[in-house]
Design goal:
- This protein is of the alpha+beta class and 825 residues long.
- It has 26 helices and 34 strands.
Length: 825
C-alpha cells in the first residue's frame, strides 16, 4: 500500500463512508446519556471564512469526544437564512432572494462537508423555508394571544428618496448608504414583543449559568440594567401637566439646578410653544433626528442642548428649575426626563460647565469639595447630605429613603424599580423575512391569522425596485385577503419579522425538525434540551442570547418545554486575525479555507486552528503554523504506516508485565498523555495543550522506535492510543491510519481510551538541572528522591560543577519530580 499522505483522496473517501453509514444520525435513546452540542448557525453568505472553520472545528472536537465517551450526541446544522443581504443581491444582481439564498446554502453545505464536521444532516433546517417559518409565525401568534406581542408607534430611520425604512447599519454618517440622501427620523406603527415582562427573570437566572463566561453575563446584566430608585413628578410653571422623572439618587434632589428632557419627549413642543426658545428647540430636535442613539449615548460625544423656555418647581424647596433638552438623555430609558445634579453626576457636570449652569454641592465627605464653582469634576463618592434643608446630615443611604418617603407622603412619587431593557421591536419593512401573521379588517380591527391557516407564505413573484422598498406593498395577491372573523375584504400586514425572531428558537426545532403539527414535541425537547454546549462569537452576547433566553422562558411558561434556559454552557470563541487585524476583503488579508484545504487538507486546517491559541482567545493566522501542523501529521503518518504491518495482528495482554525500561517509559508516556488529553477536552477545552501532549507522545514513539528490541504490544497500545486521541482533531487522517492498522470498525465508533494508573507509576524519572534558570543538564533519578537528595545529586553533577566553578552559589531551588535550579553570581 502506498505510503504517501494524500489528504484530498483520504478525506473524500471517509466523508463518503461516514455519510453512507449514517454514523452521525441520532435518535432519542433512554439507555444513553445525551449531549447536545451546537454552534451558532450561520447566515448563508456564500462562502465559509476562517472564523467559521474555527467555530465548527471546536464544536466537532467536542461532539466526537463526547460520542467516544458513550454519549448520544446531537450535533445539528442549519441556516439563519432570512435577512437584508439577500434583498440587496436581488436589487443589485436581479437574483431572487430565495434563489440566491438556496444557492449559497448548497455551496456552504459542501464546504462544511469537506471539513469533515460530524453533523446529523437529516436535521438540517433553514429559517426561510415555509415549514420553519410556519412555526415562527405560530410562536408569534402564541405571544399575541398572551398579550406579549403588540403594535405601537415608534421612531425609525426613514430615507425620503428610497421611501423606505433603514436599519441602523444602513445609515452612514446620517445618510442612506444606498442613495446618500439625508436620513430622517419618522414615526411608524411597529410590532413589539414584551420582553420587559421577563426582565427580572432574565436578570435573576443569570445566577443559574455557571457555565457562561462572566463577561457575557456582565454584558447581559448591564443591558437589562436594573435600577432601584425613585420616581416623582414636578409641577411645571404655567402648565397643568407635571414632569415625571426617575432617579437613583433621590438624596441629591436639593442639588438639582436644571431638568433635561430627551428631544423626542412629547412634552417638549408643548413647553417650547410660544416662548422665545421655540425656534431653537425645533432646530435642535430636527438636528437630533440625524444622530444615532449610539452616538448620542457615547461617553466621548460632547454634551449639547437647548433651554426650552419652561420652568419646573422643585417640590422639596420650591425653587424654579430651567427645563432643557439635551442629546445625552434618551426617551427609551426611565421616563425620558432626568433631574440634573451637576455637582454629583459627571455628564450633568460637563453640561453645566458648558452652559454656565449653577453647580450646588449637596453631598459632602471630610475630603470632598464644598464649593461647586471651584469643582473640577463631579463628586460621586460617599458622604452626608448638606445644603438639603431638614434632610441635611443624613447619610446618602438614609437620605434616599427619607426623600422617597417624603414624596410618597405628598402623593407625588415613591420608590420604584426601572430597567434599561426595552421591549423588542420586531417589525421590518422588508420582503425577505417571516411575514407577521396579522390581518386588518375595517369591522373587526386587528385579527391574528388562525393557527390552522399558517404559514402565511411569502409570494415568490415579486418585483424589487431600486429604492429597496418592500415589494410586498405592491403584491395584491398577498396583501388583499379576507377577514377570518367576518369574511369581509381585509388587508394583510406587510411587515416581516426581525431575523432574530427566527434564531430565538431554532435550537429547540433541531430536536424535532420534521414535526408538521407543532414547533417540536415536548418529549423530544425533554430528552435533548438544554443545549449542553453552545459555541459562537461574543458579538452575539446581548441580542441573540437575550432573545433566545426570553423565548425559552416563554415556551416553558406555555408548557412546551421544561427547561428555563436554552444553553447550559457557552463558549465564545475569539476571532481569527491576520497581521494583527480582523480578516477582511478590503484589507486584502483574507485566507480562504478552500485554498488551505486544497493545499494541506481539512485535517491540517482543523489542527492548526485548534492548536494556535486557546479557543476563547483571538488567533493570529500563521502560514508557518499551518506548515508545522502539516509536517506533524506527516510524521505521525510515517510512524504509523511504518509499523502498521508489524502490529496488525498483535493482541494486547490483559496486563503488561516484565517490561524493560524503554517499554515502561513508553507506557508511562502513553497513559499520561491519555490522562492529559482527557482532562483538557473534558470541560476545559484546552485544545492547544491537548494537541501539544499528542505531539510529545509522537516524539516519544520516535525515540522508542530506535530501541534495540521493540515490545510490539506496548508499541501497538501507544500507536492506537495516539490515533484515538488525535481522531477528534484530524478525523479523516486517523480513520485512514486506523484502517491501515487492521481495525475493522470506524475509529469514530471506538471508545475513548482510558489511562491505566499502574502505568503512571515510575521507579525513576527525569529531572532538569538549571543554572540560574537556564537548562544545563538532565538526570534520571529515583522517583522518591527527597529534596536533600536531589540537591546533592545536582551539586555533584559534573556539568553543574563545570558551570559553577569559580562562582558563588546563592541558593538551590528544588521542585521535586521536575527540576533543580542552582542560582549563582
Amino acid at each position: 500500500m502506498e505510503n504517501m499522505y494524500r489528504p484530498a483522496e483520504i478525506e473524500a473517501k471517509w466523508q463518503q463512508s461516514w455519510e453512507d453509514n449514517g454514523y452521525f444520525k441520532v435518535t432519542e435513546d433512554a439507555a444513553k446519556p445525551k449531549y447536545y452540542v451546537l454552534e451558532m448557525f450561520p447566515y448563508p453568505s456564500g462562502n465559509l471564512h476562517m472564523g467559521h472553520v474555527r467555530n465548527y472545528a471546536i464544536g466537532d472536537v467536542i461532539a466526537r469526544f463526547k460520542a467516544m465517551n458513550g454519549y448520544n450526541v446531537l450535533h445539528p446544522m442549519g441556516w439563519d437564512s432570512f435577512g437584508l443581504p439577500a434583498e440587496n443581491a436581488a436589487i443589485k444582481q436581479g437574483a431572487h432572494p430565495a434563489r440566491w439564498t438556496y444557492a449559497n446554502i448548497e455551496n456552504m453545505k459542501e464546504q462544511l462537508k469537506t471539513l469533515g464536521i460530524s453533523y446529523d444532516w437529516d436535521r438540517e433546517l433553514a429559517t426561510c423555508k415555509p415549514d420553519y417559518y410556519k412555526f415562527t409565525q405560530w410562536i408569534f401568534r402564541l405571544l399575541y394571544d398572551k398579550g406579549l406581542a403588540y403594535k405601537r408607534e415608534a421612531p425609525v430611520n426613514w430615507c425620503p428618496s428610497c421611501a423606505t425604512v433603514l436599519a441602523n447599519e444602513q445609515v452612514v454618517d446620517g445618510c442612506c448608504e444606498r442613495c446618500e440622501a439625508t436620513v430622517e427620523k419618522k414615526k411608524l406603527n411597529q410590532w413589539f414583543f414584551k420582553i420587559t415582562d421577563y426582565a427580572q427573570r432574565l436578570l435573576d437566572d443569570l445566577e443559574t449559568l455557571p457555565g457562561w463566561p462572566d463577561k457575557v453575563k456582565i454584558m447581559q446584566r448591564n443591558w437589562i440594567g436594573r435600577s432601584e430608585g425613585c420616581q416623582f413628578t414636578l409641577p411645571i410653571e404655567g402648565h397643568d401637566q407635571g414632569l415625571t422623572v426617575f432617579t437613583t439618587r433621590a438624596d441629591t434632589v436639593y442639588g438639582v439646578t436644571y431638568m433635561v428632557l430627551a428631544p423626542e419627549h412629547p412634552l417638549v413642543p408643548v413647553l417650547a410653544k410660544g416662548t422665545p426658545q421655540e425656534e431653537a428647540v425645533r432646530d435642535f430636535i430636527d438636528r437630533m433626528q440625524f444622530v444615532s442613539d449610539v452616538a448620542r449615548s457615547s461617553a466621548d460625544t460632547e454634551k449639547e442642548g437647548v433651554f426650552t423656555g419652561a420652568w419646573a418647581i422643585n417640590p422639596v424647596n420650591q425653587e424654579r428649575i430651567p427645563i432643557w433638552i439635551a442629546n445625552y438623555v434618551m426617551m427609551d430609558y426611565g421616563t425620558g426626563a432626568i433631574m440634573a445634579v451637576p455637582a454629583h453626576d459627571q455628564r450633568d457636570f460637563d453640561f453645566a460647565r458648558k452652559y454656565d449652569i449653577p453647580i450646588r454641592v449637596v453631598i459632602q465627605s471630610d475630603t470632598s469639595p464644598s464649593d461647586g464653582g471651584a469643582m473640577t469634576e463631579a463628586y460621586v463618592g460617599p458622604g452626608n447630605m448638606v445644603n438639603s434643608g431638614p434632610h441635611s446630615g443624613f447619610t446618602v443611604e438614609d437620605g434616599q429613603q427619607a426623600i422617597i418617603k417624603f414624596f410618597a407622603a405628598k402623593g407625588i412619587g415613591g420608590g420604584t424599580v426601572n430597567f434599561r431593557l426595552r421591549d423588542w421591536l420586531i417589525s421590518r419593512q422588508r420582503y425577505w423575512g417571516a411575514p407577521i401573521p396579522i390581518i386588518y379588517c375595517e369591522d373587526c380591527g386587528e385579527v391574528p391569522v388562525p393557527y390552522e391557516d399558517l404559514p402565511v407564505r411569502l409570494p415568490e413573484d415579486v418585483e424589487f425596485r431600486p429604492s429597496g422598498e418592500s415589494p410586498l406593498n405592491y403584491v395584491e395577491a398577498f396583501h388583499k385577503t379576507t377577514c377570518p372573523g367576518c369574511g369581509k375584504p381585509a388587508r394583510r400586514e406587510t411587515d416581516t419579522m426581525d431575523t432574530f425572531v427566527c434564531s430565538s428558537w431554532y435550537f429547540a426545532r433541531f430536536t424535532d425538525p420534521h414535526n408538521a403539527r407543532l414547533p417540536f414535541d415536548r418529549a423530544a425537547t425533554d430528552y435533548w434540551m438544554e443545549v449542553d454546549q453552545y459555541i459562537g462569537g461574543v458579538e452575539h452576547a446581548i441580542l441573540h442570547l437575550m432573545y433566545a433566553r426570553f423565548f425559552t422562558k416563554f415556551l416553558q411558561d406555555e408548557g412546551l418545554i421544561s427547561c428555563p434556559e436554552p444553553f447550559e454552557n457557552l463558549l465564545t470563541q475569539g476571532m481569527v486575525l491576520k497581521e494583527g487585524g480582523k480578516m477582511s476583503k478590503s484589507k486584502g488579508n483574507v485566507v480562504s479555507p478552500e485554498e488551505i484545504i486544497k493545499k494541506y487538507g481539512a485535517d491540517t486546517a482543523r489542527l492548526f486552528i485548534l492548536f494556535a491559541a486557546p479557543p476563547e482567545r483571538d488567533l493570529e493566522w500563521s502560514d508557518q503554523g499551518v506548515e508545522g501542523c502539516y509536517r506533524f501529521l506527516n510524521r505521525v503518518w510515517r510512524l504509523v504506516t511504518g509499523y502498521a504491518d508489524d502490529i496488525r495482528y498483535v493482541n494486547l495482554p490483559a496486563q503488561f508485565e516484565q517490561l524493560d525500561a524503554d517499554a515502561q517509559k513508553l507506557r508511562f508516556k502513553t497513559h499520561s498523555t491519555i490522562k492529559k488529553v482527557t482532562g483538557d477536552l473534558n470541560g476545559r477545552f484546552n485544545f492547544n495543550t491537548a494537541i501539544s501532549a499528542i505531539m510529545e507522545l509522537c516524539n516519544t514513539l520516535y525515540a522508542y522506535s530506535d530501541s534495540a528490541e521493540l515490545d510490539l504490544p506496548v508499541l501497538k497500545e501507544a500507536l492506537d492510543s495516539m490515533m484515538l486521541l488525535l481522531s477528534p482533531f484530524a478525523p479523516h487522517f486517523c480513520e485512514e491510519l486506523w484502517s491501515r492498522c487492521g481495525h475493522g470498525d470506524s475509529i469514530c465508533l471506538q471508545g475513548w481510551p482510558v489511562w491505566d494508573e499502574s502505568a503512571l507509576f515510575q521507579d525513576e524519572i527525569e529531572i532538569v538541572l538549571q543554572i540560574s534558570g537556564k537548562v544545563r543538564d538532565r538526570l534520571t533519578v529515583p522517583t522518591d528522591s527527597s529534596k536533600e537528595e536531589l540537591e546533592h545529586i545536582a551539586l555533584t553533577s559534573p556539568k553543574i560543577q563545570e558551570y559553577t566553578a569559580g562562582k558563588e552559589i546563592v541558593k538551590v531551588i528544588v521542585v521535586p519530580g521536575k527540576l533543580v535550579n542552582v542560582v549563582v553570581k
